[in-house]
Amino acid sequence: MFQDRRRSMRHCTGPANGVGGTVNRREVLRTGLTGFASLGLAELGKLRAAAVGPTQREKTAVILVWLRGGCSHLDTFDPKPDAPSAFRGPFHPIDTNVPGLNVTELLPKISQCADKFSLLRSVAHDAGGHPAGSLRVLAGDPAQADKTLPVLPDWMSIASWVRRNSKQRIPNYVSINPVDRYDSFTIAGPTYLGPSYEPFKVTGDPNRPNFSVPNIGTSDTAQGQRLSDRTQLKANLDRLRRDLDQTGMMEALDDFESLALRLLTSPEAGRAFDLTQEADAVRDRYGRNQWGQQCLMARRLVEAGVDVVTTEFDGPLCGRVANWDDHAVNHHVFEAIAHRAPFFDQAISALVEDVYARGLDKRVMVIVTGEFGRTPRISHVASSGGGVASGAKGTVQPGRDHWPRANTMLFAGGGIRTGQVIGATDPRGEDPIERRVSPHDFLATIYQHLGIDYKEHAIMNFAGRPIPILTEGNAIPELTNAPKESRRGQS
């Protein structure tokens, strides 16, 4: 019976690490869920070990810039100058270097590299809370209610799982100022893939003069040999008790320690994370601030071979409450956007231009988004406290609230046709009226760029049941470089 099951799953793909394993969706239906649930851990392990990973035509990569809290689409990438005063912000649209493509006056540098990106103005969903909205965009979770923890692995962890190479000397998934939490809620994680597929996390402000990433790239040859000897000794001891582990944690610890050793002894890794390797003029162009240097590090990492880099724009550069959640109780929305716009404009424009200037644009896709947009109708509420971009407590000021019904995303690189606007919202910016797309379509687009077959892959959860990486959605044709024939049937 076991051999029959094994033959039926001959299209399994993916590494033999962690709890997860991947199976062809059609084979899932043929074999039946109960058959998978009845397999023991040892049998599952054998199946994973026999799996053959997918081949990659080229070393594609993604940089995600995450705007925690949700950016106002009307005041940045989808201006509505003719909207009624109750909706219209104070910022005027300006021309870009692409005729017919406008952004607001807050983004002059971005406006001059519009020929190198495309705007997707019609993303919509119905998860209105920050955790639920983040889980929808990052993992495709269909739930509308907020959750304290994710139940589905995010796309970054799945990409890390598919792309894992046990011999790589640099992590394949790095998060700079990690995209992982919203207050007390966890908004991203590998869940049933196992902890091996969490990102290598870089914290702190890379603009600080004394900034360094710890435990990276020792140059001491003798120290490296001592570390290798100790690791081999521990591996011999651990082998005696590995069969006792029933949770996947032993394997995860092995993965962590193996990666740690490679990072400690890899000069290549040390150089990739070291921003002092860049000329002062380049660092200045990105902006001598946290966001600018995060973007510069992201570019260096994909150039060094990292597959997925995420970086979150939050903190002091956002204003008083340190995020993009521009309710009137938090921020004077227009002062907040004006405060952060110069840092945002400089960092994003430098990243986009650099990706093209360095010949990375065919394989590296840059995405800028948050979990949703902001309400087109302006609210007026008393501030809960004074500070940067917020009046004194009790001051009535304008704000924009959560708005999952419309959002704009920026895409650059990835071999896509640039200088285009995809989709449109109504004259008030409330809802898509053309080319509406969902977060599932967004995820499918990323997977297609990374060479991951989102229609065929499924991952076994903690119970051994195969869960498709996407239950719906299609790659957005305008944002892929796939041949036309592979786009048939997509909407």
Q: What is the strand and helix layout of this fold?
A:
Layout: H1 2-8, E1 22-24, H2 25-31, H3 33-37, H4 41-49, E2 61-66, E3 93-95, E4 102-104, H5 108-111, E5 117-123, H6 130-139, H7 155-163, E6 173-176, E7 181-182, E8 185-186, E9 200-202, H8 221-239, H9 249-265, H10 267-273, H11 280-286, H12 290-304, E10 308-312, H13 333-357, E11 364-369, E12 373-374, E13 379-382, E14 396-399, E15 402-403, E16 407-413, E17 421-422, E18 424-425, E19 432-434, H14 439-449, E20 457-460, E21 466-468
Helix pairs in contact: 6-14, 8-9, 10-12, 12-13
Number of domains: 2
Strand order of the largest sheet: 9-6-10-2-11-16-5-17
Please state the average pLDDT score: 84
Largest sheet: 8 strands, mixed
Q: Could you give the count of β-strands?
A: 21
CATH topology of the largest domain: Alkaline Phosphatase, subunit A
Rg for CA atoms:
23 Å
For the record, what is the CATH homologous superfamily label of the largest domain? Answer: Alkaline Phosphatase, subunit A
Task: Categorize the overall geometry.
Answer: globular
CATH architecture of the largest domain: 3-Layer(aba) Sandwich
What structural class do helix, strand and pairing data support?
Answer: alpha/beta
CATH class term of the largest domain: Alpha Beta
Q: List low-confidence stretches.
A: 1-56, 240-246, 483-491
Defining traits:
491 residues; alpha/beta; Alkaline Phosphatase, subunit A; 2 domains; eight-stranded mixed β-sheet; three-stranded antiparallel β-sheet; 14 helices; 21 strands; disordered N terminus; disordered C terminus
